[in-house]
């Protein structure tokens, strides 16, 4: 009996997947499920502030991939989905999810006035002259000019980061990165230590 059973049973991955329908049958659901798990894990890490930086990028990009995978999954299983959505309990759950999302978006605070404080600070720094920015970084304007000169960028103490960026064909972010790198970063970490 076990011999006849093994002959009739064939796992879905061993079936030929030459047609689009076969490929979708074999991969759409596992792909959607695995991407949803990764997005859920990275979302939880971001929510609880356990990770940032690369995890945020991973969460955003794989979130987009998960949307595509979910679309393929829904395309492959559209008939079953329509049948499921005809059930009252599914309509209640879907309606509750939409209502909860709408309430969250309307009740949640919009964030700090004026936008992200980090971005506001960065924009203010980009519009500041080197002589204004130097004390914030814990160095002299001359130190900033020396740092830029080492990269072949001409600057004066009264020029803004934005003007320096335009003149050197760099982005303001790239100029700020040069100004806050290694040695200057040490001055920021230890503001009471003399910078040489």
Quick summary:
The chain has helices at residues 2-8, 20-47, 54-76, 78-85, 88-107, 117-127, 130-137, 141-150, 161-168, 172-179, 182-189.
Describe this structure in words.
The protein is mainly alpha-helical and 196 residues long. The protein folds into two domains: 2-91, no CATH class; 117-189, no CATH class. It has helices spanning 2-8, 20-47, 54-76, 78-85, 88-107, 117-127, 130-137, 141-150, 161-168, 172-179, 182-189. The longest helix has 28 residues, at 20-47. The protein is elongated and about 70 Å long. The N and C termini lie far apart (85 Å).
Class derived from helix and strand content: mainly alpha
Distance between the termini: 85 Å
C-alpha geometry: elongated
In DSSP terms (H or I, runs of 4 or more residues), the helix count works out at 11
Radius of gyration computed on alpha carbons: 28 Å
Number of strands: 0
How much of the sequence is in beta strands?
under 5%
Q: What is the arithmetic mean of pLDDT?
A: 82
List the domain count as a whole number. 2
Question: Can you write the helix and strand succession as a string?
Answer: HHHHHHHHHHH
Contiguous uncertain segments of 5+ residues: 4-11
Helix content: over 70%
Biggest sheet descriptor = none
Features of the shown structure:
196 residues; mainly alpha; 2 domains; 0% strand; elongated
Topology:
Elements: H1 2-8, H2 20-47, H3 54-76, H4 78-85, H5 88-107, H6 117-127, H7 130-137, H8 141-150, H9 161-168, H10 172-179, H11 182-189
